[in-house]
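Hi there. Long-time user, first ticket. I'm pasting a complex I've been working with (about 407 residues overall). I'd like to know whether the download I got is complete or cut off, because the file seemed smaller than I expected. Thanks.
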Amino acid sequence: MKRRQLLAAFAAGAVFGPLANSQERLIRVVAKKFEFIPAEISLQRGVPVILELTTEDVAMGFSAPDFNADVEIVPGKVARVRLLPDKAGSFEFTCDVFCGEGHEDMSGKIHVA
Amino acid sequence: MTQPIDRRDFLKLAGLGGAVFASGLAGCAGIAGAEQDEFYFVQLSDTHWGFKGDALNPDAGGTLPKAVAAVNALAVKPDFIVFTGDLTHTTDDPKERRRRLAEFRDIVSKLDNKNVRFMPGEHDASLDNGQAWKEFFGASTYSFDHKGVHFIAIDNVSDPAGKIGDAQLAWLKADLDKHATDAPVVVLTHRPLFDLMPQWDWATKDGAQAISLLMPYRNVTVFYGHIHQEHHHMTGHIAHHSAKSLIFPLVAPGSRPRREPIPWDAAQPYRGLGFRSIEAEKSVLKIVEYPVKA
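Hi, the file is complete. Here it is re-exported in full:
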């Protein structure tokens, strides 16, 4: 993959293999019916992180619109998305791939200090 | 059989049970210049047949039949009726899903007017890509013309990620290409096409592409469901009007930290529930909201 393509995929929150910057903190998040583990993620303003997401059962989504972070989580694969917490506060993230009876309660919080 | 509707009669009808949405929205006056006959249709949405939860609606099994009876009792019969999705409440069990769809179909078969158009919601369609829903109601993407107005049904729920998808967008473009840019167009869909509240999944991921295709058309109005409340919004000259639910209302967008249903109020039963009529008359679309009554 050419550098320009890689950067474009990165900006779009695409699923990809190697981390773009190994200095960035890695946070693993597991999705399963109908919760995220952890459901609360604490970050520092201005310090980007890589979220590494997997699902234990069905296809899920991770969406944090306040940070323009959105990625689909496919069973058997690892999804990664870079998140830059550019503002302080508490922000909701949700599963945005309809996954079953408890889908609408599947959410969490990102706290940025 | 359809009947011409007299404006004065329509407003009388509104006075009998509904509230006229007196809109100054340019898009609500979205059929300017068009030559079409007067008519009206009824929109029902988010009936969630199969839902159980007394705290939100102790009459979950009775609300839809009451709405059907109320539509049948309208003094002036609508030309047609649309259901904009979430006909049933979701279930992980495919057999139960079909049972709920069958029961829903049986109940709405009691509508006097048999010209009924259906759309799926994510509760109906997202867990099996619309397979069961289509067994009962056929295609989930279609268009039709009625008395000079072009209606387009867009499916933004059969993809569980809440996308319209490239194939359907191509179909939309081809469908629109057949019409002049001053043609009156009404879009029917489930999710909002614009980013109303993505944090609450109140959006369509590629809805902006649909709006972009619609934008050259000067007279476009969108009617949708999903958010269980009335909401009126403009994207440029295009008006978007969400409908009330027939199971429980949800809180206003952004009014609480999380998306929440509004509990049943025994002092005001059925508060926040209802259906609407939409009258196409010369240069305007008039919306009249009807409550559900005990």
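A couple of notes from our side: DSSP finds one helix and nine strands in chain A. The domain at 3-112 of chain A is CATH 2.60.40.420 (Immunoglobulin-like).
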